[in-house]
Write a structure and sequence with these properties.
Helices cover 88% and strands 0% of the residues. With 128 residues, the chain is mostly helical. The protein has one domain: Four Helix Bundle (Hemerythrin (Met), subunit A). It is globular, with a radius of gyration of 16 Å. The termini are far apart. 22% of the residues are buried.
């Protein structure tokens, strides 16, 4: 019990002190973690656990989607398309117990995360 409380407090402190850019990375990390857990649960026949994990990741993807500022142009519009594709894949994964569809989303989100991390590092280097 103590470990869980301490971990929760540590995570909460990290979120409260994170920059907006770091929060996006944290969202990607969480979605990827939940999706990997969900795919593993699907392979292990743990239907309810798989459903719970994939739905958590789906909620994160939805949050990323809703946070887009479409007035920023083509990049935001393309991200919206990717997020909507991810959501469709996750729905398909749950309907058909398809871990491969989950892994497709993991791959996409991992690539987006890498790009976001590179952009954050580049922006930080430019301000130094």
């Amino acid at each position: 019990m103590y470990g869980t409380d301490a971990q929760r407090a540590y995570t909460e402190a990290g979120v409260l002190t994170a920059t907006p850019e770091q929060l996006v990375l944290m969202l990607y990390d969480g979605a990827i973690r939940f999706l990997n857990q969900g795919a593993a649960a699907m392979r292990g026949g743990q239907v309810e656990l798989a459903r719970t994990r994939v739905r958590r990741a789906e909620a994160i993807v939805e949050e990323l989607n809703l946070s887009l500022d479409l007035s920023q142009g083509e990049v935001a519009e393309r991200l919206r398309s990717i997020y909507l594709f991810c959501k469709r894949q996750l729905i398909d994964a749950l309907l058909h117990d398809n871990p491969a569809a989950v892994e497709t989303v993991v791959k996409l989100l991992s690539e987006l995360r890498e790009g976001w991390q590179a952009a954050v590092a580049s922006a930080a280097a430019a301000t130094v």
